[in-house]
């Protein structure tokens, strides 16, 4: 997995390169937006991390330019600004996620992992959560021992929905929408039953965590 | 927002105009009244005097000189007089004489209604008063009539003198006609109670008074109407200001403003522009400060993490961990200070206020804090009803982050934290309840102060969290209340939003 980092502060840049290297990523760092295009033309990247406050052309302009040129490269914005406008702007322009400085390296690594996972899922039809491999095309989940989990149609839909948003809380309402067709009705209690059965089948390959009053979150372990 | 102290009742322009007009107008009216009074009283008194003199002349005509040279007054027999009033009937019967004078015993000295000479009834038409008379010689000898009646000394070209006099406690107007019968000079004096003319004057005065009063009243009503119409542009200006959002710094329109008020509006606009520039400068500064503070902190933090991973030496790792703790605390304080500066009203404009789905915000904030809570085994959950509030998204986000951060700090491992939102009695609220030790009543005001740290709080707290909450609540016209938990010992931090927003 190769990541392009656009960050002008050498201390931050150096730390991210090293930190993500320990997480298994190869990171190429550039200090300004103008050097990005040359890199993209010669190398394939799975993700770009873009600082908004760049000298010269700023991060916003870069994101807008990349999306206008039709690039589908996943973009993670890191910035010191935390105003709502900046956030909305960046996401509206086509960034995929947003992280406010100062952040912890493990958090950055987790965000990178999630973004890459989502992007790969769209092309390779496969996701990896914890020790679970989720085959979206074959509609099956395989644990690290190679065993195919036997899931009902509804359990599969719940797992698929949670996996698409892994690491984030998914509301019960959203899960209900994911598993029922128009003519069916299902209660929140029924969801709980399905989730508890799914948990039992996942074992310790991945964890479905219940968040009181909010929903569920799929965690790595 | 704090309520401004009650101002002393300011003098209104309308009141001042009205006051300044009312006093001179009233003075003017009094002057006019006095002038009117003078104008009619003098000719009226002259008329009364002339009528009195005619009565004297009429009596003089009845004074004759006998053959022996003595003077006598012809008997007051109406029948012998041929000077009948042409239309005596319309005069009506003479009214009963004035009480004061009727009481007098010496009735022979008076013209009673029945013996009043018709001649001077005609000369003095409409006379409602009895007259006193005296025919005397220049030496004071009285020939007929009331011999105590004072004689008016001075006399003018028509041989009649007038005087005010008091006779037997009655105020009289006397007229003395200087004439001669044969070759004997005779003074004929007629006295009339002034009461009569006073009544007439009073009646006229009251008519003039009422009419002047009505005029004054009409002028005042018109003035009031005029003032109201003239002040209408100022009222419009006031409405224009009132319609603006409190944080809006839009310049006021000069369009409907009259020339006199225009400089005021212009200086107000200059001030608004200055404030707006200052606000923009502040926002610009905050953006820069955030960048300048956070970027090196990120580098420092990330470098320490990398260093900790790369170091095998446990002693060094421990040092690095302590460094990391300090950097984290520094980062936290920097964030809090920036948040506090941003929560100040000058840091956000009216366009930042939008409709915010609070229950969705709760979900987002819980999502971002969940790992911290889970690491401590805290059951973090929500009991939210759908709720919309008018506010600044990132400020409310910051508010909830701080409430939750505070709750997590004070909740023991394995405790509970519940975020609730909804409406109670129609009033929107957002609250965070924890199962920590709670906050003593005595501390509840102080914990909102900047940099105040309650006894027993951990070394990581910046003492700014609840100050930020207070500031943000205030900028949303919401109330920040610290209450007891519904169950157990913990604290319940509650934000009550205004019900209209």
UniProtKB/TrEMBL annotation, chain A:
GO molecular function: phosphorelay response regulator activity; transcription cis-regulatory region binding
UniProt entry tagged with the keyword Phosphoprotein: yes
DNA-binding region: 124-220
Entries under Gene3D superfamilies matching the protein: 3.40.50.2300, 6.10.250.690, Winged helix-like DNA-binding domain superfamily/Winged helix DNA-binding domain
Source organism, top-level taxon: Bacteria
Matches recorded under PROSITE patterns: OMPR_PHOB, RESPONSE_REGULATORY
Record-annotated OmpR/PhoB-type domain positions: 124-220
InterPro entries xrefs: CheY-like_superfamily, OmpR/PhoB-type_DNA-bd, Sig_transdc_resp-reg_C-effctor, Sig_transdc_resp-reg_receiver, WalR-like, WH-like_DNA-bd_sf
Keywords: DNA-binding, Phosphoprotein, Transcription, Transcription regulation, Two-component regulatory system
Occurrences of domain Response regulatory (ranges): 2-116
Modified sites of kind 4-aspartylphosphate: 51
Single GO biological process annotation from the record: regulation of DNA-templated transcription
This protein's GO CC annotations: cytosol; protein-DNA complex
SUPFAM superfamilies: C-terminal effector domain of the bipartite response regulators (SSF46894), CheY-like (SSF52172)
Name of the protein in question: Response regulator
Record organism: Dyella psychrodurans
From TrEMBL, chain B:
Compartmental location: Membrane
UniProt KW keywords: Kinase, Membrane, Phosphoprotein, Transferase, Transmembrane, Transmembrane helix
Ranges where the record places region Disordered: 69-103
GO CC annotation terms, alphabetical: plasma membrane
CDD domains referenced in this protein's UniProt entry, alphabetically: HATPase, HisKA
Catalytic reaction(s) noted: ATP + protein L-histidine = ADP + protein N-phospho-L-histidine
Principal subcellular localisation of the protein: membrane
Pfam families: 2CSK_N (PF08521), HATPase_c (PF02518), HisKA (PF00512)
UniProt xrefs under InterPro entries: 2CSK_N, HATPase_C_sf, HATPase_dom, His_kinase_dom, HisK_dim/P_dom, HisK_dim/P_sf, Sig_transdc_His_kin-like_C, TCS_sensor_his_kinase
Enzyme Commission number(s) of this protein: 2.7.13.3
Molecular function via GO: phosphorelay sensor kinase activity
Class of enzymatic activity (EC top level): transferase
Domain Histidine kinase: 288-501
Gene3D superfamilies in alphabetical order: 1.10.287.130, Histidine kinase-like ATPase, C-terminal domain (3.30.565.10)
Protein name per Swiss-Prot or TrEMBL: histidine kinase
